[in-house]
Amino acid sequence: MSHLHGETAEQRPRGIDPRAPRFAAWITAVLLLVGTFFALLGPAVSAETTFTARLADPGFIVLIVVDALFVWGFAFPQTAPWGVLYRKLIRPRLSAPDELEDPRPPRFAQVVGFVVVTIGVALYLVGVPWALPIAGAAAFIAAFLNAAFGLCLGCQLYLAFTRIGLIRPRGGLIGV
After folding, report:
1. How confident is the model over 73-83, as pLDDT tens digits?
2. Do the Cβ atoms of 18 and 98 come closer than 8 Å?
3. For site-directed labelling of 139, which of 21, 25, 56, 157 has its Cα 20 to 30 A away?
């Protein structure tokens, strides 16, 4: 992915191996698929379903873990487990990438995944039927598209937001 226009080399963050986010997307997709599967098998959400029963639902637990991994991925990318695993075990066995990628779009994609799963988890906890499996499935589809085809929906959203001025290339969201 090329750098964003209007930036000097000193302003751009160091590039990352574009294969690393795809590797992480494979693991994330598997975890999301497992979480979605368990969410579909979990207790049917109704007025009688207790809050404690929702907290103990395996689908809820797996998706909370995935949500925590999303936070780790965007807040502390250098220590995020899938990145470390890629850098230590996979990257040394590969040739150098043809080009490096701007790390900001993949990091933003982690934020998008976090938001989607968090909304599903929150709605599930307040008793909205199907919120958990729908959020898990939506995040799974995005992770799978990235892993299998290199189509990062969160990255595309980042670029679109940058083009319309909602995200500044060197900063965060406008007004934040």
Report:
1. 999 999 999 99
2. no
3. 56
Tally of CB atoms within 10 A around 9: 6
d(CA 161, CA 19) in angstroms, rounded, equals 24
| Longest CA pairwise span in the chain (Å) | 59
Q: Which two tokens stand for residue 21?
A: 């986010």
CA distance linking residue 60 with residue 37, whole number of Å:
11
Of all helices (H) and strands (E), which one includes residue 46? none
Three-class secondary structure of residue 173 per DSSP: strand
The encoded tokens of residue 34 equal: 């497992």
- Of 154, 157, 156, which Cα lies nearest the Cα of 109? 154
- Assign 85 to helix, strand or coil: helix
Q: What is the pTM for the complete model shown?
A: 0.85
